[in-house]
Amino acid sequence: MIYHADLNLTNRCELRCKYCHSSSGQPKKDELSQSEWIRAIKKLHESGIQSISFAGGEPMLHPEVIPLVNYACSLPSFRVALITGGAFNHDLLKRLPTSEHQFSISLSIDHYEQAKFNLTRPPRQGYRSSYSFESAIATAEALGMLGISWSVNTVLTSTNAPEIEELYTFVVKRLGAAGLLLIVCANIGRGSKSDGQGLPYSQFKERLLYWTEQKSKGLLSAMRISTISPWEFYLPLAEMGIELAECENLWHYSTPSRFDALEACDTSDTTGITEIAIDSNGDIYPSVLLSGLQSARLGNILNSDLNFIQNSSIFQQFQKPKPYLTYPACSTCLIVRQCRGGSKARSFWLMGSTLSMDPFCPRASDLVSPS
Ligand code: SF4
Prior knowledge:
Elements: E1 4-10, H1 34-46, E2 51-56, H2 65-74, E3 79-84, E4 103-108, H3 114-120, H4 131-146, E5 150-156, H5 164-174, E6 180-184, H6 201-216, E7 223-226, H7 231-239, H8 244-251, H9 260-264, E8 275-278, E9 283-285, E10 299-300, H10 306-309, H11 313-319, H12 328-331, H13 336-339, H14 344-351, H15 362-365
Parallel strand pairs: 1-2, 1-8, 2-3, 3-4, 4-5, 5-6, 6-7
Antiparallel strand pairs: 8-9, 9-10
Helix pairs in contact: 1-2
């Protein structure tokens, strides 16, 4: 059962983030119109999907973003999120729904200093270098003035990893964010290039242990972590012999394999099982990480039946468990029940098959990411 869909409303973006998994920049020629997106959102809602995220590109640069967000928020029992970098006309914010409508906003901020912010989130050519940082901060201030609740998404990179506590203080205590979500770099799309800013496993491990210790002292309480695969959370802690249940409580983190739908498929990866992604031209993919990869395309939201898609051979590949107990590294792994061979999306993207071991697992490669 699919519960969630990520919508890449447009591929257009004025920023050129080094790690962007959708390699956003110019809008695609065949992006959906307002009426087509309305049809798509209606279809997703009617098919039983319970939540969507508007992302991109920069979703606020889609010419019809306001009516689309308001339409989605008018649908019963539908949770709607908007993920933005803040580089748009701020007058639009006044026309967004309030949080009573199960609506949330996440603003991407990677650093509290303009020069370091710019290392990972530079603007496209033609803008002054301070544009990305200034836009994000101005958006945060505008949201605060409008009384709209918002939180921060921070992609964890080699640039900001040593200064996450300072960033937390800046966004939560000074700018008023409700929380900070650390996102482990996917190393897909533009992020697969050598300057994609991924963090080597040894550094990631050292930082995760440090933040966990801080949390156990009552600090960084509004900081959470989002991983591509559960090993990114569990493996560093298990290797140090730390009690995992306690860490789960501190971080409010749990392996997706505990959800019934994933347990039934013997996997920890939600890709194509509880979530899908819709690209800006309406093409459907098993995950936002696979958007644009033709071999993973499942159809188009305007003319495909979502039930029919679930019978397609590509979709079925994501339902199959990895034979993780046959992989030597997994069969002896301390966290095999939480992980079960890692990310299928990364295996498919890099190895062409969902059935291979997660190629980024450090027990296979020694690195979280190429760097
Ligand atoms: S060895 Fe296998 S089960 Fe263990 S963390 Fe790596 S991918 Fe996951």
